[in-house]
């Protein structure tokens, strides 16, 4: 793997971008006059009728075409406003990307972060040092060390904010918005919590969004970032929405994360270790399954649905639950019921 594109606000948004990148010759996001890849026509002779059949074919793409189409997609208005990040793991590919950016006239939005994520020194020695550990432990030990294996797919970075939010949003507390001074109801209101450790300010999501948009002086619907009105800490709107969405819609993941803190974790093991162990725990057998989206589920990549930054869903997997339920059903034996025959009715009539 040479690079990844991350930071999508939802699973559907990621699938839309994936389809557009893989089908750059068909997507309507790229204008026709800027298109680099074009559809080809494949001809095939029918063995029965002998007629020629023409079908649209996928063009052959090289590394240059892939990066060129990626640059085009990151520049279109539909994707350029998303909080995306482009992370390279290969120095050669990253240098080619920099060269290509210098050649083209148009540039991608400065909001899209692009950097080279190289493995840290000594990362190659980690598999040798931990050769006796399990595969999962070696994978978790590599998180935060750079490279492909260093990508953290867990919610461990949000744990401090979630712990603070749990204490602030208790039902016994009298909660009020730091901007409008109106009361806050954790069960019905969307509440944002400042991620600064010593700041105890909470706000309505709409109030803080309007405050950030006024400071940015833009006509955009969603802000990019802004300063906390209380502590003046610069906050990323994406990070605020990640924490709020996980707190509101990912109650199962939050319980596992906070419960993992109380476990005894050896020193030197990253925070994602305990969280990953909790994910693999089969104690929550009564939790429902979650559907897995595929590229086939995205029918129209140009749908008019507004992509919301609060639509990040939990990625927990509960395959063990399905197997346990099916096994319980198969082992359950229904009682045998013998209905009365019609002969009894005939006897009653004859009497």
From TrEMBL:
Residues 177-241 form the Structure-specific endonuclease subunit SLX1 C-terminal domain. GO terms for molecular function: 5'-flap endonuclease activity; crossover junction DNA endonuclease activity. Gene3D superfamilies: Zinc/RING finger domain, C3HC4 (zinc finger). It comes from the Eukaryota. One of its GO terms (biological process) is double-strand break repair via homologous recombination. Residues 268-331 are annotated as: Disordered. One of its GO terms (cellular component) is Slx1-Slx4 complex. Residues 283-305 have a biased composition (Acidic residues). It holds the Pfam family SLX1_C. This is Structure-specific endonuclease subunit SLX1 C-terminal domain-containing protein. It comes from Endocarpon pusillum (strain Z07020 / HMAS-L-300199).
């Amino acid at each position: 793997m040479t690079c990844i594109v991350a930071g999508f606000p939802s699973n559907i948004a990621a699938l839309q971008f994936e389809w557009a990148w893989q089908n750059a010759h068909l997507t309507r996001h790229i204008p026709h006059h800027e298109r680099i890849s074009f559809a080809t026509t494949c001809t095939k002779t029918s063995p029965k009728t002998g007629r020629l059949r023409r079908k649209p074919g996928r063009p052959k793409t090289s590394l240059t075409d892939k990066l060129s189409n990626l640059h085009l997609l990151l520049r279109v208005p539909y994707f350029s406003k998303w909080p995306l990040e482009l992370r390279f793991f290969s120095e050669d590919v990253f240098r080619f990307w920099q060269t290509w950016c210098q050649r083209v006239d148009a540039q991608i939005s400065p909001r899209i972060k692009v950097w080279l994520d190289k493995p840290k020194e000594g990362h190659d020695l980690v598999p040798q040092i931990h050769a006796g550990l399990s595969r999962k432990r070696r994978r978790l030990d590599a998180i935060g060390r750079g490279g492909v294996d260093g990508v953290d797919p867990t919610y461990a970075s949000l744990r401090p904010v979630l712990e603070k939010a749990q204490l602030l949003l208790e039902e016994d507390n009298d909660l009020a918005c730091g901007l409008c001074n109106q009361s806050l109801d954790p069960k019905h209101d969307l509440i944002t919590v400042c991620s600064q450790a010593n700041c105890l300010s909470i706000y309505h999501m709409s109030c803080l969004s309007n405050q950030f948009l006024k400071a940015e002086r833009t006509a955009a619907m969603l802000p990019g970032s802004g300063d906390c009105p209380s502590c003046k800490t610069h906050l990323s709107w994406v990070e605020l929405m990640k924490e709020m969405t996980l707190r509101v819609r990912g109650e199962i993941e939050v319980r596992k994360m906070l419960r993992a803190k109380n476990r005894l974790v050896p020193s030197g093991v990253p925070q994602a270790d305990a969280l990953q162990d909790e994910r693999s725990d089969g104690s929550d057998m009564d939790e429902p399954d979650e559907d897995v989206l595929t590229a086939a589920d995205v029918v129209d990549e140009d749908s008019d649905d507004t992509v919301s930054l609060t639509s990040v869903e939990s990625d927990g997997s509960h395959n063990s639950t399905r197997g346990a339920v099916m096994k319980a059903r198969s082992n359950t034996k229904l009682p045998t019921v013998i209905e009365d025959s019609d002969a009894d009715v005939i006897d009653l009539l004859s009497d």
